[in-house]
Structures are given as structure tokens and as C-alpha cells.
Here is the input.
Amino acid sequence: MNASVVVFPGSNCDRDVLHALGTIAGIPATPVWHKETVLPEGTELVVLPGGFSYGDYLRCGAMAARSPIIRAVREHALQGRLVLGICNGFQVLTEAGLLPGALLSNSTLEFICSPCLLRVERTDTPFTNAYREGALVQFPIAHHEGLFFLPEKELQELEENRQVVFRYASADGSAGIRQSPNGSLNGIAGIVNRHGNVLGLMPHPERASERILGGTDGLRMWNSIKSWLEGGSK
Amino acid sequence: MDFQKAGLRSHEYEIILRELGREPNETELRIFGVMWSEHCSYKSSRPLLKLFPKEGERVLKGVGENAGVVDAGNGWGLAFKVESHNHPSAVEPYQGAATGVGGIIRDILAMGARPIASLDGLFFGNPDSAKTCRLSNGIVKGVGGYGNCVGVPTIGGKTLYDERYEDNPLLNAFCIGLVASGSIVSSQTAEPGNWVVLLGSKTGRDGIGGAAFASVELGEDTKASRPQVQIGDPFVEKLLIEACLEALENGLVTTMQDMGAAGITSSASEIAAKSGVGMILDLDRVPLREEDMVAWEIALSESQERMLLIVRPENLEAVLALGKKWDLDCAVIGETIEGNRFILRKGGEVFADLPASLIGGGCPEISWPAERPRDLDQRQSFDFPTTGFSEDLSRPLLSLIASPSLKEKAWITRQYDSMVQVNTVQGPGAPVSILRIKENGNLVAISMEALPWICSLDPYRGGYETMARSLRPLWVSGAKHLGMTNCLNFPSPENPEQFWEFSEAVKGLADCCRDLSCPVVSGNVSLYNETAGRSIPPTPLVCSVGIIEASCSPLLPGNWKKGDFLFLVGMENASIPGSHFQKFFLKHLSGRPLPPSPQMEADFMERAVMTAAKKLADSAIPLLGGGLAIALGKESIASGIGARISLEFPTHPVAVFFAEGGARALYAVPARNVPEFTRTWKGFPIRQIGLVGGDALCLPQSDPIPLQILANAWKGA
Here is the structure.
């Protein structure tokens, strides 16, 4: 069970994810430089971490989506293996065409760093099988471009295909655009591809993986991945 | 060009003539003009800075390096420093603030440390003016824009409004980094026969003469100064951090230096002088952003995101490869030689040939005359008009907690990534910010404090109280202090009354540091913060750093539990002069703040640290701005529960609840711990003042304040 964490120029959560996977969750993880063309032997999970790849110049994630390593990541995804994009990594996945939609500037037009309540919409994915459906969890967000957008018809398809995994929510469990701090359509915070093996989300599970940092709701994501890779549940 | 136009005084020019034995050429004159400016030479402040105690058991590297380093335990060091970027932020708020953050991060990097957190000190003018709105928005976005991208969390700071900052807003940027004690970089280790390598951005015409610009008063037309402000690129800075740390990890560099004020000249001559080597630089080899730059422009450009590396010949190839890996320009621009000569060449011609030690170390000190301000007695005469205030405390509390300097600052802190690097245990919004060190399990506690109102009434007492007030939050959280860094923001030293205030404030700081054994490990001075005769109040800003050992957990505020007993520790006779209450309600500062009380501070320290270590309290907060009333209000809001307070007062209730100063704190103690808590505080003034519970804050002889109303006032909702 090995994870590879891709490091783009400007990634700044790569070390955080390596810490959460390796030290906290016990999933051996290694950094992979974006100029590499193949993933390390035995990679089962690829994580595209948060940060400001290429300084967010041009468009968030646009240049990183054209990095040499992305070919190998795409190949990995097409084989049905796991890819997780967090924050800037989610933006890269949409730019690479591995996930639908686009992340636009927050409706506040400001950077927002804040803890957020999320409602878990699906528990039958490799990333969320340790959660209870409808559970409220707290992950922080920290981004300027996190407004999830899709044209209406595609958005409807996304919902019909049950591709929404996390939605911004309030304490009473309601979720939607009104609960989303950044104006995301339908309150969407994280989605999977049709096959369910590629997850992108704006909130940071790696920042919610230790009690000393204020919460451990993110731990269940790592545990979900672990048990899925160990063949425990699908 | 004559020496005056270069910004030199005649006495200084005479020294240059004497030392060189000839007249300097134009390039040399410009170099001296910048390097001997106030900003680079500290010529006005050096005599005062000598007052600071710099030694301490846990100081690994002190003043004289880019940043001080203290021992964080188990072979790890913490490098930290605070620096101003006031003038640039007044002219171009976004870039001025952004490059302030970038500059201090490189100072920390230059010590070989990975930058792990920032704090920002923000001082703005009239909160309702269009100018303040523009400046504060730009500065906050600049701090966030740079810090967020570069991946260094902004975990706290200080924000204060006063009309005297209207034309001269202050931005003080603090950064702290982690370094293995054995890998600290010193600028004294260059050897002859090494390559001088420039890594990072190309050099352009931005920021030329920035240091000199920061050494005079701001002009009224700030737009005219725009060319002196640098433009930042946090993306390149992030690459630079990773590249430099990778080079250090692989032992590829002998030493390195960040490029800030006075660019290549400053960084290169500093290494040469401190290491006792000479240097020849070929300016033709500097990667340029624009063509036909002349020698002095290249030598003095303050283009951002550049580092100077000194590399042994056998490591050069690996360093160049590293530059390529990180897509950074990386060029050999010269070599180190035996001797003391600092030579700049371009196109085969020598443009400067100076003794390296003269450039950075030759500027004579200036001892400005100091004069006690004529109106000081008048400032210090205090007549507290108690008759103007009813005994009700609720209304003044609701007004004060909604005042610009005390109200919630979420509009600022939400724009900062305070959590990246996953170390933030206590982020913005508390008197102390806390980080964990993954490498050794210890916790670092950091505070930032500045008390311009108290300092303008009595700069000595103000300086002392500023220092003590920066330490108290550390102690209350359970941390033992390791050291402090300071940024001395003052107006022109050429005005004798202003210089007197500067001197007194520094003496106050220094005496407190000595009394409490807190070494000063780094710092920065920013003078000439005035525009057209309008001066900022004396604003010495202090950041203190302490450590909580791995086995202990921090005692934090915002955690009142139902049934907790509230204790006020410390004297009740604090002071209204210089307080938020006086500034906000009386509009006029007057009177004398409290005199220092070293024994009280030491006694407080010992007991506070013990209280945290024994986990005797659920929640604790030192009394800071707004005194007891604001501490109660904030604790109540943050904990989401009310309290009933009963307290007899010998004087007017307002004086008890809103006075400031002195070693005081508010503790919430569960019933089972009350006996041990009181034993711990034996020998120190302590008084039980209330009980936690209910959904309102009930102050004596006052209407209860429902929590929701209190929180809305604070949040400005």
C-alpha cells in the first residue's frame, strides 16, 4: 500500500499530506517531482496536494495539469486506481479533465481560511467508506478560487450520477449554496468521477487529522482509503 | 553627483575621503549613500540598541546575524525576527506589505531555517476615512496574498487604529523558522576562492534606492515614490525556499545571504566583511530583467526573491543543477578573494573598489540631542472625570468591545491561511499564538505587543509595560520565554523631543528584558515615520517567543465551563492613562501609566507557568487592552457561556473594570482545583470574582448582557 504525493512548483501542502498519510494514518507515502514521467513502482494512491502550483498564474491548476507527471496520473486513474486532489489538486484535476466542472473565484472575491462543516453525501466510495452517510464533519478550507461551477444541465447530470461526495452544510444538517462559504453551486465541496476512483475536494482533510490541531474528522478519509486498498470494503 | 545628493552628511563624507585616500566615484558614492542610510546603517539607533541584553543560556545565535536563533530543545533552533515595511506600505499598500512579508521570510531562510509562521502588526489611521480603508484593505490583501501563496501560515498579530497613523500606516512583519541547531547558517563562514552565486529572480530597476527612501520622511505626494517600492512574486519565493533548503541539506553552500535593502551590494559586502574575505563581482553576469542597466542600478536594485550563495568550486555544478530543477535563474556573478577589497566590474571596467568592511561597518553613529518634551508634564497630568460615568458597566463594555481596535478582526484573519504546514495549535484571535514542532514535540508560543498610547504618555514606562505585556501571554499559556525581537517604529530622530521619547522607550524595553532575563536576539528600527510634521506616536513593537515542553499542554483562553470559578490574579489598581477606555471615551490621552514592578512580574511568571503545567484552570487570559471588562467579554463570547461577577471596588467601578497594565490575568478554575489553584498563587494578589454559567454576562450593579448581544457587538453584526 503506497501513496505518491505529487509536488508541483508552488505546491505547499505536499509536506502536510505526507505527514498525515505517513505519520498519522500509517500509509507509506513518497513525494514525486512533477517533472517525473512515471509514478513510483507500487503506487496505489496518487495525491495532488494543495498550494499555488505555478503561482496560480494563468488559471489555478492550468499549468500543473500539463506537467509531465500528469500523463502517468491519468493512466493511473484510467486503470481505476485512486487519485485524490485537495484544494489546488482539485483544481488541477478539473483542468486535466479528470473531473468535471471548474473552480471559480469565491463569491466574496476574497481568500477564505475557515473551518467548515461538510455533509458526507456518499459512503460507498474508496475515500469515504468509514463515514456515516449524512454525517457532518469539519474540515478547514483555505482558498480564493473554490466556487464549484458547472452549466445547469451538466450539474444535473452530476447530481443524478451521485457524484457529489461532500457538501457545505450548517449545523442543522442542511446543505446547499446558502451554506457554502464560497458560493459553490448546490453547496458542492467535493466530487468523484463517474467511476468513483478520482476524488477532488476543496476542504483540507490533512488539516483535520490530529486532535492537537483541533479535529480528527479527516482521519476517516485516510482510514477509508486504507481499508479500501486492503480490500476491506468497496 | 555630490555627497549631499547621495544622502550623506559632511562628516560622513570626510570619513569616506579619509578611509579611501581619494574621492569616491559616482557608483561608490551611491553605494555609500544607500549603505550609510539610516535604514541600512542604524546610525541613529546603534547607541541605544547597545542597551539591550543579548545574552542568554538558550541563545544559539544573537544580534548581528540575519535573525536570532534560540534553542527549542532536542537539537532544534528557532530563528525569528520582526521587521518593518512601513514606508512602502504607505505608498503602495498591496506590494509594500507583500514584499515586507517576503523580505522577513528570506531573513529567516538565510539562517538555514524553514519558515514556519508569520505574524503581522498593523497600525492604521482613522477607521472611517477613505484613505485608511484603501490602505488597510491593500495591506491585508498584500500580507495574505504573499503568505498564502508561499505557504507560511499567518498565525496572529496585532491591529490598532489611531488617527496619528493616517498618513503613516505601519506594517511590521514577523517570521519564525525551524532549523537543526547544527545546520544554522552564519554569514561569517565564506572562504577565499569560492564562487558567488545569485539564485532567484532576475534583477530589474524596481526598488532602487528603497533603503534611502525609507530613511527620510514620507513626501505628501506618495505616488511620486512608487518606483522605490518593490514588486513581489511569492511563487518564486516558494521555489527559492525549497531550492535553498535543498542546497543546505546537501551541504552545497558555505553560506548565504538574502537580498533585501541595497540588494547585491549589501548582501555581498556583508558576507565579505563578516567573513573577512574580499570579493570581485562581475555585474555583466547578473541576469537582468531589462537591458542597459548601469552598474550602480544593478548593484543597488532591490528586486525581490533573490539569494546570494557562496559555493565551493566542487559544489558549483550541483548548485547550478538545483537552480535548473526549480526553474530559477542561477548565475555565478563573482568570486571571493583574500583580503578586504570589494570590487564591482562591468564591461571590463572597475566601477567600485572599496574596503568591504567600510561599506557596511564604517558609518559613524549619530548621537542626536534628546530633550524631554515641553508638554510632557501636561500630558501626564490626569484628572479622571468619574462624574461623567454612571456606575453601569454594561454599556461602556458593549461600546468598547465594538471599538475599532478591540472588535473582532475576522475580516483580516479569514484572508490569511493560518493552518498550512499543519502546526497551528492556536491561531489568530488569542493573545498568544501556538505552534507545535513536529520534530521534537515541543510547542512554541508567540506574542506580539505594542502600546503606543501608553508610550506617548510615558515612553519609559510604556516601553517596560510593552515588554512585560508581551511576556505575560506566554507565561499564562504555560510557556517559558526564550527571547524577544523588536521593531522600533518612531518618527524622525532629528527632533530632540522625539529622540528623547525613542531613547526612553528603548530604556524601558531594555530594563524589562534585563529584569526578566529575556534576551533580545534580533530587531529592526524604522525611523522617520512622519509626513509634513505629522508624526506617529512612539510605537515599539515586541514579539516574544517561548516554549512549552512536550509533556505539557497549553492553557488557552475561550474555554470557560459551567460552574468554573473566576479568579482575578494581580493588583486591582491598574491604570486608566493610556488605556483603550481613555482613548475611546475620553478621546484624549493623559496621565501616567503604572511604574514597572519587576518583582510582581517575576512572581506572576512563576505562578502562571505552574498553573498551566498543573492543568489547574480550564481557561485563562492575561488582561490586555480594555482591561478586566474586555477580558471577561471576550472569554464569555469565545466560550459561549455567561458569568455572574461580584466584586467590591474601592474606587469608581470603571477604574477597576477598564484600567490596564500590570501583571494580571483572569482564570476559570473548576471547583475541584480551587484549593490547589489558591495554593499555587499564594503570596500574590488573588481574588475570586465570579462564577461561570447562564447565557448572559452579569457585571456588578449593571444590566445583564445577553451573550448574543455581546457577541454581535464584538463582531459588528
